[in-house]
Write a structure and sequence with these properties.
α3 (about 70-90) packs across α8 (about 250-255). This protein has 2 domains: about 1-45, no CATH class; about 55-405, Spore Coat Polysaccharide Biosynthesis Protein SpsA, Chain A (Alpha-Beta Complex), CATH 3.90.550.10. It is built from 13 helices and 18 strands. By secondary structure, it is of the alpha/beta class. The protein is about 30% helix and about 20% strand. The protein has helices spanning about 5-15, 30-40, 70-90, 125-140, 155-165, 210-220, 220-230, 250-255, 295-300, 320-325, 365-370, 380-385, 400-405, and strands spanning about 65, 95-100, 150, 175-180, 185, 195-200, 200, 205, 230-235, 260-265, 275-280, 285-290, 310-320, 335-340, 345, 350, 360, 375-380. It binds uridine 5'-triphosphate. Uridine 5'-triphosphate binds near residues 102, 103, 114, 182 and 238.
Length: about 400
């Protein structure tokens, strides 16, 4: 972060975006608080707030057509060969894994980072523990450690790193675990004015899971990756406790097909399931989010009479790092999301709103797929690899994940 910021520079930066109110209490602050606020101003991108004037406009989609998916039959036929190729890549140290753990996990409603959640019944089983165990399966199979990069945010970095230390990294080799913080974005009112959390603090939140690669660059992790000779990055979400990480079969298949990215997909459980589906958009790989899926799209059939848009993404992607470098200067679309934002009101009181009161600004990893020329959608069995935890109960919850874990022989 560039801390080279004084009051005048900060004022000029804010004035460009009509955010001078951020400095309203500057004169009453202690020197330490003044420095903290100037540091935050230096490290915050206020240009995102300009996007709300005139209401939210999502850019129109291109022409959507079906994409070819590598289905289980095809994978099983080539499995031996794919696994062999994948293991070679892993043993050569060319594959790394990136755990996205910068999210706020608001739906789960715990104050701790999501990965610290204990899903055990008769003994503690933490989400992070499950993830490390899944990765250790591959480490054992390959006979080599795999670098794991863990993205946290300003809000959960301390708690996450302390937890891993306390649990002795769940027997993983700490030399192969690297934490980095994701960049933050300001939260704003409906008219685009940045909220303050305190007199010396702008209300910010992690800038969305699309921020992972630029955050890795800003944290100097990409330099490490280049030195270490890592070519493939398996990026995955914190909340799927069944997923296979650095899966040799997946790595082998994507590498052999010479694709810039691979996306693990599952067959939709029903046409209305709330998952984004893989497709081509104007001939390039893309994902249609569930709320964009029209009746017509849901009913389209392929030449075999199967639904043509039937494969949902599970936030488990394998990126060829070189290609990411090429697209990293292209801007990802900004998603403006209505959220409840805790803030300090006119009288200096802290308010925790019950209803949404403004916007947060995020970029999404799924938009990176459309920037790449080639993508291999790779089918996995949902009952074996997809147990997301978003909520406490109901769909995609602790309850549903526990059931799936037990079905897979994992004692809780
Ligand atoms: P979700 O979109 O499910 O968000 O994240 P979340 O923060 O975990 O949960 P809710 O929506 O507040 O309930 C999918 C994955 O992306 C990561 C999350 O940690 C999760 O692994 N993520 C999300 C980040 O790393 N950074 C972000 O800014 C947002």
């Amino acid at each position: 972060m560039v801390i080279n910021m004084d009051f005048n520079k900060a004022h000029d930066k804010l004035a460009k975006y009509g955010q001078e109110h951020v400095l309203k209490y500057y004169n009453e602050l202690s020197q330490e608080s003044k420095d903290a606020l100037l540091g935050q101003i230096a490290g915050t991108d206020f240009s995102v707030t300009a996007n709300v004037t005139g209401g939210i406009k999502e850019s129109p989609r291109g022409v959507i057509t079906p994409i070819k998916v590598m289905t289980l039959d095809e994978i099983n036929a080539g499995r031996e060969n794919f696994v062999k190729a994948g293991l070679e890549i892993i043993r050569a140290g060319k594959a790394g894994a990136v755990l996205l753990a910068g999210g706020m996990g608001t739906r789960l409603g715990s104050d701790n980072p999501k990965g610290m959640y204990d899903i055990g019944i008769t003994k503690p089983v933490y989400i992070f523990q499950r993830i490390i165990r899944n990765l250790l399966d591959v480490v054992d199979m390959a006979g080599t450690w795999i670098h794991l990069f863990i993205m946290t945010s300003d809000k959960n970095h301390k708690a996450t790193t302390a937890f891993f230390k306390e649990k002795d990294y769940f027997t993983y080799n700490p030399d192969y675990i690297h934490f980095f913080k994701q960049d933050m974005a300001p939260a704003a009112t409906y008219s685009g004015k940045v909220y303050m959390e305190a007199k010396d603090k702008i209300a910010t939140s992690p800038n969305g899971n699309g921020g992972w690669y630029s955050s890795m660059q800003n944290a100097g992790i990409t330099d490490f990756i280049h030195k270490a000779g890592i070519e493939w990055l398996n990026v995955f979400a914190v909340d799927n406790v069944l997923q296979r990480i650095a899966d040799p079969c997946f790595i082998g298949a994507v590498a052999q097909k010479n694709c810039a990215v691979g996306a693990k997909v599952v067959r939709k459980s029903d046409p209305d399931e709330k998952v984004g589906v893989m497709c081509l958009e104007d001939g390039r790989p893309s994902i249609v989010e569930y709320y964009e899926q029209t009746e017509q799209l849901r009913n389209t059939k392929d030449e075999n009479g199967e639904p043509a848009y039937n494969f949902g993404v599970i936030l488990n992607y394998l990126f060829h790092e070189k290609e990411l470098e090429e697209i990293c200067n292209n801007e990802l679309p900004l998603h403006i999301v209505e959220k409840k934002i805790p803030y300090m009101d006119e009288n200096g009181s802290f308010i925790n709103p019950e209803e949404p009161n403004g916007y947060k600004f995020e970029t999404l990893i799924l938009d990176m797929i459309h920037m790449l020329d080639t993508c291999l959608p790779f089918e996995v069995e949902r009952n074996k690899e997809f147990a997301p935890i978003k909520n406490k109960t109901g769909i995609d919850s602790i309850e549903s994940a526990r059931k799936l874990l037990e079905e897979n022989g994992i004692s809780l």
